[in-house]
Structure formats: C-alpha cells, structure tokens
Amino acid sequence: MNILVINCGSSSLKYQLLNIDTNEVKVLGMVDRIGMPNSKITHCVANRKKMELTVDIPNHDVAVRLVLDSLICPDNGVIKNLNEIYAVGHRVVHAADKFSESVLITNKVIKAIKDCSVFAPLHNPANLAGIEACSSYMPNVPQVAVFDTAFHQTMPPRSYIYALPYEVYEKYGIRRYGFHGTSHKYVSLRVAGILGKPIEKLKIITCHLGNGASIAAICHGKVVDTSMGLTPLEGLSMGTRCGDIDPEVVLFLMEKKNMTVQQMRNYLNKESGVLGISGVSSDFRDIEKEAEKGNHRAQLALDVFTHRVQKYIGAYVAVMDGVDGIVFTAGIGENSPEIRRSICKNLSHLGISIDEEKNNTRGQELDISTAQASCRVVVIPTNEEWMIAIETKKIVKAKEIQSA
C-alpha cells in the first residue's frame, strides 16, 4: 500500500512515497526555492543515483506536478501510474482547536485550514496549495490532513489559556495550541516501546530540538502542556525565533526603533534566537564550532538555549508530578551529544544519569542512560513522514469501513 506524504513549506516541498505494509521508503525528495531563481528538485530512490534537476518552478502546483512526474518516470520512478497511490497525507501546521485528530480532506476542512491561516500565514497557505494541486492531479485519490496542533489538543484549559481578558479567547481563539505534534506523538510511542511499558502508564517529556524547537509533557499518553503557543514563536530560544520574552520588550522596541508590525514580526521570528545572541549563525553546528574557539557570544547562545530547555523540563516534571523518560529528537536532539550533556547536567535530582560513551552518538535510536538511572534518557530520530503515513492509512481505512 503506497502512501504519498507531502509537506509544503512557503518555498519548499518535501515528499516521500512509502509502502506502509512493508515499512519501505520507496522515494524521498525535495523541491526547493519554489517561486525563486534556480529552483531545484532532488529525487532519491533507494539503491539508485540521486536525481537533481534545476528548472523553473513558479508555484506549488508546478512543484506537485514535477513530483508526480518523477514518481512515474520510466528512468527514475517507482510506480507505473498514479493509481498505485492509495492516499496522500499532508502535513498541515495549524488547525487551532477545530480538529483534535487527522481528518479526510473535504471542502469544510479546506475552509477551516484557510481560517487558521491567520495564525500560520507562512505555512497554512502553502499546505493548502499542496492539497489543491494533489486534488487536481489525483481527483480520485483520498487526501488526509495531519495537523501539527492535533496531538496537543488534550491539554487542559489551565495549560492553554493565556492570562488575558477571556473575551479574546472566545472571540479570536487566542490560546496556546502547540506544534511539532506529529513528531512528539511518534517519539512518545517509540519510547514507550523501548521502555517496554504501555504509554498509558508513563510520564514522558519529549524534546524536539531543531532550528525550531519545542517540548511536550505527555502524561499517560496525553499532552498536558507544551512550550509553543498560539504560534511557533513562544517557548524555547530557537535558531532565529526569540521564544519567551517580556511582551513589553516588543512595545519598547517598536517605539524606539520605529518598527511596523511586520518589521517586528520579522525581527522576532527571523533575526532573534541563537542567531541574534551569537551573531554567528542560526545553525547550532556553526555555533558549537565557534564556541569551541572561545567565541563568548556563541557560548552564551548555547547556554541560553540549554538553560531554557532545563527550565521547561523542570516545570513539566512538576506539572506531571514526576517523569519516567526524557526523549531527545530532531536535528539537535539527535545529533549533538554536547547539548544533550549540557541539558542533563543539572538534572541528577530527577534520577537522570547519562552514560558518556552511549551519549557520544548521532542519529541513532538509543537509551543513553546509565544502568542505575531511574529516569531514562533516550535519543530517537523522529519520523514525521512515517507518522503521517500511518495516520493517513488509519483515516482512509476507517472511511472505507464506514462506507461499506
């Protein structure tokens, strides 16, 4: 059973074709620089030479067409025709509180995604463009929306309500929603398997640490708190996002620097975070190299990042009244032994103790705890595409049973 997974960004499109029955990734690829000069598609098939093509790609519709042509191409394709695709799963960033699980895409769902674009103006319109293109080229293939926000909808009101006049929640839906939900769900299920216990009996803190970063408290299989908020700007300091700051800072800077709303939005989202502190890069690998050379600001950026992660872990232990396991995932979480070590350094009172030899790993699924640790620390490479494929199959199969 072939599931096509589509993840559209504002100027990119990541895709995978997976056989969900055989656990096989048939194709993975990326369309980059959509709507810009030197657009490119990179198409990778197992045991074959990677295909790269630089071509004019003005919009997501053309990008999707290129992807589909690549899948059925006699030289680089893996299927004979598009009828071999059972369903398409789309990553959609924001669904507010409209959906608490993945859904089959209908006109009603499309309208809801459009309505939520106000909260994710860079992401939701691109997600919709991918949906519309796939629907146009494959009108008879079911499409499923898998939402970043859905997994977090189990949060209680005390976790998601902001201390603002209640009317802004009622009128505008201003509340914490959380993101990276597909990743948090995947690694929480994986760690339960690794620990050999039902997820319903575990208290887990999942740390999705990449250029965008978030943490979730998952108590007995349900999210009870998460670090990102109405948008992905809240929470940890990130590659270019500031994370938690005093709101008065925004007003002060807008006044002092005579900034417009859009200028401030760019400032907080694209010029801040570890990039703003270090002045070096938004890439943690570059910052780590500079810190090793004695660059004070680079080291400060790393210290701020790890300190913020520690604070959230401590807070979430309090929220759940304990913790059985901590998961590190995504680019930094999977590949930086130094950052994992720094984060775990002051957490011994939680029963955390990492084995230095085991911790010296990159991109490998591994329990890095010492034998005596009562709280396990596990590195798990995330696989959002596989989670999207699983969700897609589940939703389409349920619809088929219902229609039978």
Radius of gyration: 21 Å
- What's the helical proportion of residues? 25-40%
Report the portion of residues in β strands: 15-25%
| Approximate shape | globular
Tell me the CATH topology of the largest domain: Nucleotidyltransferase, domain 5
Uncertain residue ranges? none
- Main sheet attributes: strand count, strand direction, barrel closure: 8 strands, mixed
Kindly state the mean pLDDT as a whole number? 92
Number of DSSP-assigned strands: 14
* DSSP summary: helix tally: 15
- Structural class, by secondary structure, is alpha/beta
Cα distance, first to last residue? 19 Å
Q: Quick one: CATH superfamily of the largest domain?
A: ATPase, nucleotide binding domain
H and E string: EEEEEHEEHHEHHHEEEHHHHHEHHHEEH
Query: What is the number of independent domains?
Result: 2
Arrangement of strands in the largest sheet: 5-4-3-2-1-6-8-7
